Amino acid sequence: MIDRSPLDDPNTAAHAWRRYRKLMLRMLGMTLSVVALILLLLYRQGGGVSIHFYIAVGLGVGFSMLLMSALMGLVFLSNGTGHDASVDNRLPDKESD
């Protein structure tokens, strides 16, 4: 029998998604801070580069950090709620030839 996931309970799921949104808001703040710091450092050291360089660096670093934090947040959500433990990992028996 497959165990029920704790995320099937609406109260547990609401709490888990609230934590996930809070984590993502914190990571958005951290990402914006890091992007601003990187752009400031590049501006101070760079000099003769195009504005397109700064846009590309800002978008690249920002997108990468937000994507990594979203995926890691989902891993923490899945493991922290016990959803991972409820998955049935047993493989079906092989039929002998």
Describe this structure in words.
This protein is an all-alpha fold and 97 residues long. It has one domain (8-83). It has two helices and no strands. The protein has helices spanning 10-45, 51-80. Helix 1 (10-45) runs antiparallel to helix 2. The longest helix is centred in the first third of the chain and has 36 residues, at 10-45. 2% of the residues are buried. The mean pLDDT is 84.
Question: What descriptive keywords fit this protein?
Answer:
single chain; 97 residues; mainly alpha; elongated
Offer a concise description of the structure.
The protein has 97 residues and is mainly alpha-helical. 68% of the residues lie in helices and 0% in strands. The chain starts with 9 loop residues before the first helix and ends in a 17-residue tail after the last helix.
Helical proportion, percent range = 55-70%
Low-confidence stretches: none
Shape descriptor reads elongated
* Count of the separate structural domains: 1
Order of helices and strands: HH
What's the helix and strand layout?
Layout: H1 10-45, H2 51-80
Helix pairs in contact: 1-2
